[in-house]
Amino acid sequence: MHPADIKLKALGSRLRAERLKRDETQSIFAARIGVSIPTLHKMEAGDPTVIIGSWSRALEILDRREDWDALLREDEDLFEKYERLHAPPPRRRASRRPS
Known about the structure:
With about 100 residues, this protein is mainly α. The protein is about 60% helix and about 0% strand. The chain has a single domain (about 5-85), classed as lambda repressor-like DNA-binding domains (434 Repressor (Amino-terminal Domain), Orthogonal Bundle). The protein has six helices and no strands.
């Protein structure tokens, strides 16, 4: 089995677990994300033919929008990170006290 297929099956299992944790039937959850019950079944089985828009709506319903940001996030420039971590703290001046 291809590693991507394994990841999709795990994703489908987590989707099913989230649905069950919310105590929703397949028909109710499918209606909430705007897909048919067979499509939801495919999602929960990790079928790679399900369009990404269905996954997007599912994450929206599960209040997991931030999970999209983890997909293909921008690589961090290690030089910029080093400079940020080792930069001297910004200088601050004391406030003027009235005499």
